[in-house]
Design a protein that fits this description.
- This protein is about 70% helix and about 0% strand.
- The protein is mostly helical.
Amino acid sequence: MSEPTPNNGLIKEADPVPLKSKLRKAEKKREFQAFGLILPALLFCIVFFAFPIISMLKLSVENNEVQAELPRTVEIIKTWNGKDIPNEDVFNALALDMKKAYREKTLPKAGVRLNYEIPRFRSLLIKSARRISKLPSGPYKEALIKIDERWNEIKYWAAIKRNTSSFTSHYFLKSFDLEYSENNEIKLKPDDSRIYINILMRTIWISFLITVLCLILGYPVAYFLATQPPERTAIFMFFVLVPFWTSLLVRTLAWVVLLQEHGVINDTLIWLGISEERFRLVFNRPGLIIAMTHVLLPFMILPIFSVMKRIDPHYMKAAKSLGAHPVIAFITIYIPLSKAGIGAGSLLVFILAVGYYITPELVGGPGDQFISHYIASFTNELLNWGQASALAILLLVTIIALFTVFSRYMKVGET
């Protein structure tokens, strides 16, 4: 009897090595395709999120102005003990640097940077440079002190020495209301000079109040929408989404019209006889909270609504059938089940509120401006990009820290 041949109907056993190799290649191909799908989003995040943050961080510590315009002074002042007035060599180096920078008209750059350290330092530099340029040669110590007695004070030389490095902590120290003392030690500013920490706390506090108010108003609306038939839900959802289709500037200006002393609300209150006086409801904190709550309310309703739609109504029916009061059943069963929506909506509203600029600018008063107002002021008016970047980084770190604590407590994302 002849042996069976490979083609007589028997299946030949596959070689395991080529099969494993093919599986690995197929897996790598799928991974490459998946990476190709997320690549546009990754590039978008790098270009429009990571790169701006890195640029801000660089600007907040960059410090090249004094080194560029006063190179001799920067080099020689490193040996100064910081306790006594510098010797003749340091004065001579400063005079030569000021002469050169004054001729090239670049001295104001260093003056502006030193002005951040000590007010009116820029005018001191320009005044001294203009007069010292008329002297043919040194020694310059006595001449500079004669030009302005401030050159006989240690704090001005200490400010120059602090700027001998290419990096500085000045902007971050100022953001935390810290400053250098006359002994070149870091200290907290006096109570009446503290600005930025108070502004940050004000921003967080008002944003928190707006978040709570949005939650109080938005939760019942979300529950109402989630318990209605689909055709009614669509109709009522239209009214919730209308603010998304209206410009933020238009909504904000509409509240200015409504809340002003001779606006619709005050006129209505007087017409109804509820009040005989006109209330000041705009350009103050109550008006700001009202306007921002209206603007941000949909961002609270939608996340809560999306979670509530997935809650099985049989849970509440089962609780009632077991004798639970409807209120007790709602508090102990329904609210915990909607906790993920509460957390997501609260977090979304709070983060958006902290970074708002237009509404506080138009509706809030001078004492109600958010930290974004000062970031914009340093960027557009004072052209102090370093301080603006430091405040932006401070705000970003604060939001990330609050987000981490809040998300862990609320377990955002869990259902």
